[in-house]
Amino acid sequence: MPGAHPAAPMADWSQMPVDLLRLIARRLDTQFDVLRFRSVCSSWRSSVAPSPNPFGDGGLRISPHGRDPDDRLEIDFLSRSTIFLVGVPRSRDQTVPGGWLLKVGKDFPGRMHLLNPLSSCEFDRLPEDFPRVLDLMNLRVLELGHEYVLRCLNDDRRPADILFPDKVAFMCLGNGNDYVLLRIASGKLTMFKSKEKRWSIIQDTLSPWYDDVILFNGEFYAVDRAGRTVIVGLDSGVTSFVQSNFRGREKFLVESVGELLLVYRDRSLDAENDHESLVDYLTSETVQFKVYKLDSEEQVWSRAKDLGDRVLFLGDECAFSASAADLGASKGNLIFYREYVGRAADLSLKMCVYDMDSGRFGPTEDHAGFSELFWPPPDWIASPTSEPQV
Fold first, then answer.
1. Residue 263: pLDDT band by 50, 70, 90 thresholds?
2. How many CB atoms lie within 10 A of CB 244?
3. pLDDT digits over 223-232, tens only?
4. Which residue, among 161, 162, 26, 149, has the nearest Cα to 78 in the 3D structure?
5. Are the beta carbons of 268 and 277 closer than 8 angstroms?
């Protein structure tokens, strides 16, 4: 057409300067992001090294001498699971909900498991139309967190079904060949160093029982039953960081947008209120979650009454967070967890939500869009863009 401007030439992304590629790579937060970055082309792949990964294609053999400190069992195997938020790219379909939460566990090469994102339970049966292979290039994938589970090995040297439901934090050292584990075993902190190939109990006479551990900003943090927060060094030394009064069993350490949160479940029961069932107890106004944000300079936990856009998920072995926008939800400031509900003679585990705005508990169905995050898989996961491959 007369006067029409010629189309602008397409950019050749493979010719980006190496220095610029490295600057971009430094802002990649997860191993999955690095993997996708390196998959673009050969120049992008050569600009950044792969993330250290001592797990390889499966789990991590600890050592034949990784005996538990109480000398009852030999702990030989560490499984790592990754929590993903999978969704349809926003540019492709604006009508599809935000996504689907799933946890992918690996033990041996070729063996992967789909797990409940808030537990280590494997789903018994996948839907018949569930694809054998998911083409991640056609999906929006966010890596939200990891969990680590210790196992013994069976006689055939495969991971046993019996798991250790203890909290485990993992630190990768150097080039990824060396690592350190910090574990809560029967309330005590124990550490395993790959170079030493043995477990050792952290000596801390001030804290008889710990509730949670986490790796945050390259350091191990732990919180005990009384709310005392400590940093555990690689030399097994314990440094008291925050002394607080959060008495009670249910405490979770969560990293959220570069900040460390402590979620404390206050189960104080109003003595004047005679609850007829556990459902009444769990939904009473006297039960609530309280969230605190770590102020590392002042060394205090400050109350956070509003999470803004963030949504917290409290699992059995790990806790993680996501933004309401990524979840396709209309609001944040929510906490998801699993709870036994029903009368004492007929309890069952259900997914529940605590709304920090109202201070009330409820089922996921009370919050539009959130129930679709969990099992069963959404219909779009079996769309033509992810057909099964044999």
1. very high
2. 15
3. 998 888 999 9
4. 149
5. no
CB 103 within 8 A of CB 153: no
How far is the C-alpha of 201 from the C-alpha of 188, rounded, in Å?
7
Structure tokens at 2: 């007369």
Mean pLDDT, residues 242-250 taken together: 73
Q: How confident is the model at residue 276 (pLDDT cuts 50, 70, 90)?
A: very low
pLDDT, mean of residues 21-32: 72
Q: What is the mean pLDDT of residues 41-48?
A: 76
Secondary structure (DSSP) of 216-260? ETTEEEEEETT--EEEE-TTS-EEEEE-----SS-EEEEEETTEE
Q: Rounded to 5 degrees, what angle do the CA atoms 355, 360, 365 make?
A: 65
133's tokens: 């292979």
DSSP of 253-322: EEEETTEEEEEEEE----TT---SSHHHHHTSTT-EEEEEEEETTTTEEEE----TTEEEEE-SS-EEEE
CATH number for the domain formed by residue range(s) 173-249: 2.40.10
Tokens, residue 21: 């590629």
Burial of 176 (0-12, 13-18, 19+ CB in 10 A): middle
pTM (2 decimals)? 0.81
Q: What 3-state DSSP class applies to 47?
A: helix
Q: Which of 142, 130, 147 is nearest to 376 (CA)?
A: 130
383 with 131: CB under 8 angstroms?
no
| Average pLDDT, rounded, for the chain | 76
Q: What is the pLDDT of residue 241?
A: 80
List CB contacts of 277: < 8 A, sequence separation 6 or more: 342, 343, 344
The total of other beta-carbon atoms located within 10 Å of residue 332's CB is 20
- Return the pLDDT at 248: 66
**With 90 as the cut, is the pLDDT of residue 207 above it?**
no
pLDDT in tens, 52-93: 667 766 677 776 555 655 555 566 788 888 899 988 765 555
Q: Give the N- to C-terminal CA distance of the chain in Å, as an integer.
A: 50
Domain boundaries, the chain: 14-47, 52-165, 173-249
Helical (H) or strand (E) element with 160: strand 159-164
Mean pLDDT of 243-268: 83
* CB-count burial class (<10 Å; 0-12, 13-18, 19+) for 35: middle
User: CA angle, 143 as apex, 139 and 145 as ends, to 5°?
Assistant: 155
**Residue 259 bridge partners (DSSP):** 256
